[in-house]
Please model this.
Amino acid sequence: MMDLTEKKSVHALLARHGFHFSKKFGQNFLIDDSVCPRIAEEGNACAGYGVLEIGPGIGTLTQQLALRAEKVAAVEIDTRLLPILQETVGKFENLHVIQGDILEYDIPALLEQEFSGLRCAVCANLPYYITTPIIFALLEKRLPMERLVAMVQKEVAERMAAKPGSRDYGALSVAIQYYTEPEIAFIVPPTSFIPAPAVDSAVIVCKRRSEPPVKVCDEALFFRVVKAAFSLRRKMLSNSLKNMGINSEQCAQWLQRAGVDGKRRAETLSLEDFAALTNTFSVEK
Ligand code: SAM
Model:
């Protein structure tokens, strides 16, 4: 198996294929031999599991997934990487490399087609420019995946896992925690990649919840309330929640119905508080 964690041989491989990194696709390839096996293990890649990899790059993480999982499907947008992947991971019979944009894919159909009868996980060193759209595309579709293991910017991982009352807690934390139980597994320094990104990265493990932790009458409304509350995160709720298209009086009545003090700020609200606000929202004239 080709060693894809040795800087010199990776540069030689890329030069042989006339490949130049594309900023547009967020290409920072892992060259740290300790990181990919850990991601694969966090993703439960093993017999009985199908793993969807997003953005295999030159196949560094793909190798480790294909060594462990029953089946791997890897979706790569950049057509220039296909001949490289053919060379580096083409021999794995349990691997299907698919060219395409993950955001354009019918992911539920893809999982059904690739992993029918298998348990399922998603592992990815995500292109940073579209980290959150990809994560939401995966979570909102209620895929049958058990966990999502993703390399993201450390600062984004901290926001995803943040608890109420912390500086990092925001709409992203609420949304991720509504669907999953996130936990930062480990931090990865810029030196683990070529080219080296400007900031630290982190691997976050998001275990899919079988049921959301709170019951809401309307999910779209729940996310609207969260967004409105955090739209003015330094302001009191009695102010920020007027962004729901209501006046001060309607807002005060609503907060009272929900049992939430209007002097609080969004960053102190638990998922239960947001659910209470959602379930008592009504615009009475
Ligand atoms: N997995 C490789 C690694 O760890 O070395 C590469 C990670 S690199 C940060 C992100 C990869 O995602 C690149 O190969 C890039 O071309 C690919 N990519 C970017 N946008 C994508 C999209 N919308 N759909 C699928 N792949 C994408």
Observations:
- The chain has a mean pLDDT of 95.
- Residues 25-30, 54-57, 60-61, 75-78, 81, 101-103, 125, 127, 130 surround S-adenosylmethionine (CB under 6 Å).
- The chain has twelve helices and nine strands.
- The first strand starts at residue 29 and ends at 30.
